[in-house]
Amino acid sequence: MLLINEENTLNYSPSCERNQDVILKQLLPILSSVSSVLEIGSYSGQHALHFCSSLSHLNWQPSDQHSLVANLNENLHRHNIDNIKPAIELDVSDPVQWPETKFDLIFSANTLHIMSWQHVVEMFNNLPKCLNNQSYLCIYGPFKYNGQYTSSSNANFQLWLQNRDPVSGIRDFEKINELAEDIGLTLLQDIAMPANNQLLIWKYENVC
């Protein structure tokens, strides 16, 4: 059994530990049908390690910003899962850094509220570089609906985020879905998750 804890994992995230099983349960039907995955904002690598230790057929490409890649790769090396590639540096706003490879699925957890809105827009603009026809995009995290928070705890979280970094914040689902539709993604599921989070799943159809 893979043991991932605070003692053997740099940048260990308790929230990843809490949400990894429920995310895997919801994504299992899709993950079972795909092989290549790009994760945006892998951070500690806990999701990659958990998912890939359960699903050996996956070929997982972690990524993160320059300042986080060294610790991320150290975690992957320590836990040594064969079907996880070394992490790559990825600034979502830089078209040059996006891999040339196409993936069956792109996954990102708890990232959109950390990025600036401009970075969110640029991420969606760059996503088609890495999407196959019929690829999936799966994003986990908190969202607002019709401008309203789904809980008082999310409203308090928003205050914490903006005190930490004024350009961050919980995003409006409608605006995110509009960005997705503009690049050819169709929403398949919007799943309510524990701790007032959502799991959004889109499918890509290249109309070109």
From TrEMBL:
The record's annotation in InterPro entries points to: DUF938 (IPR010342), SAM-dependent_MTases_sf (IPR029063)
Q: Which Gene3D superfamilies match?
A: Vaccinia Virus protein VP39 (3.40.50.150)
Query: Which Pfam family, any one, appears in the UniProt record?
Result: DUF938
Annotated protein name in UniProt: DUF938 domain-containing protein
Ranked from the top, the taxonomy reads:
Bacteria, Pseudomonadati, Pseudomonadota, Gammaproteobacteria, Alteromonadales
